[in-house]
Write a structure and sequence with these properties.
There is one protein chain. Helices cover about 35% and strands about 30% of the residues. By secondary structure, the protein is α+β, with helices and mostly antiparallel strands. The protein has 2 domains: about 120 residues, Immunoglobulin-like, CATH 2.60.40.1930; about 140 residues, 3-Layer(aba) Sandwich (Trna Endonuclease, Chain: A, domain 1). Strands 1-3-6-7-8 form a 5-stranded antiparallel beta sheet, with no helix packed on it. Strand 12 and strand 13 form a beta hairpin.
């Protein structure tokens, strides 16, 4: 029981003394002084901006200025200056000048009002008005010291295992970038037929071209002929959407006409019913061109064309297509 009483009494006295000292401090700050700096740590050549307020609502104004002191524990030196109070506020700047080894104090009007010997380390700034005072701690360091400390902390955080992960991540990143570059180069080569089409490709009947390559080649051909072209249709996601077997594969337009082009990259001849299906998409265009890149059209298809069944259609067989390629695309003859 006695131990409990002692503990209770100790707690009570501690709380009472805390409240008592708190009241004493409050009584010693009747003007409710505040003291602020733009930050707590500074480096050479920076400017320390100090501001604060004084409240005269509960206490009488006794003077127009406030006393400011800068104390450096390492040198045990204190520099005193004053700042005018305007509408309950005060402020001043302290320029850190390592060349002169001084802290240069400038008042709110930009006037030099004193200096203090500069040393790296902690400083205590105090403002006093009458019996009221408040304090604030700041630190000043050279750039070299700050960078060294930062570097040391960084290297402390990175141990050998972390370095291993960092190196692996860098290697993986390089590999990913290389693969992406290669894919981009291959894609560019595929959609730019002028870089690879030769006379040998024509003699081999475009055996190396996929149906998508053939559509891209047709688009490039009409682009060289002066048309603004669109291969497939751009989807909402921005990807190129191909139309399929009977839709319009390439759209070509200039100031005189709009053309819808169907590309048949088949080995067999194109039949009249295949042409008829494509004609069903002809309405938005002035004419439709159906290109049989690797073959021809059946005799029945030519008969239907001659009888006027496919009035809006032009039929390009492989020979016509290759002649156009030689005229507008081919860059290397073999």
């Amino acid at each position: 029981m006695k131990i409990k009483n002692i503990i209770f009494l100790s707690v009570f006295l501690f709380s009472f003394s805390g409240a008592l000292f708190s009241n004493v401090y409050a009584e010693n700050n009747p003007y409710s002084l505040t003291l602020n700096s733009d930050k707590s740590g500074y480096i050479f050549y920076e400017t320390i901006r100090i501001t604060g307020t004084v409240d005269f609502s509960n206490s009488e104004k006794v003077q127009n200025g406030i006393t400011i002191s800068i104390f450096n524990p390492s040198s045990n030196l204190t520099h005193y200056t004053t700042s005018m109070i305007t509408d309950g506020t005060f402020g001043w700047n302290v320029i850190i000048d390592p060349d002169a080894k001084q802290l240069v104090t400038i008042d709110e009007y930009g006037t030099f009002v004193g200096y203090h010997s500069l040393n790296e380390g902690a400083y205590k700034i105090q403002v006093q008005y009458g019996d009221s005072f408040v304090e604030k701690n700041i630190s000043i360091s050279s750039t070299k010291t700050v960078n060294a400390n930062t570097s040391e902390k960084i290297f402390e955080m990175i141990d050998s295992s972390t370095w291993f992960l960092v190196i692996i991540s860098i290697i993986v990143g390089i590999i990913v970038i290389y693969i992406s570059y290669q894919k981009s180069s291959l894609k560019k080569a595929r959609i730019d037929p002028k870089k690879r089409i030769t006379e040998a490709d024509l003699r081999n009947n475009f055996s190396k071209l996929s149906w998508k390559d053939a559509e891209d080649l047709v688009g490039e051909l009409f682009k060289e002929k002066g048309y603004k072209i669109e291969v497939g249709v751009l989807s909402e996601s921005g990807e190129q959407k191909r139309s399929g077997d009977f839709g319009i594969d390439v759209r070509a337009k200039n100031s005189n006409e709009s053309i819808g082009i169907q590309v048949k990259h088949w080995t067999e001849n194109v039949k009249s019913e295949d042409v008829a299906k494509t004609i069903g998409y002809a309405d938005p265009f002035d004419k439709v061109i159906i290109i049989s890149t690797k073959s021809d059209f059946t005799a029945q298809t030519y008969t239907a064309k001659n009888e006027g069944q496919f009035k809006k259609a032009e039929l390009w067989n492989t020979d016509k297509f290759k002649d156009e390629i030689r005229t507008h695309i081919l860059i290397e003859k073999q």
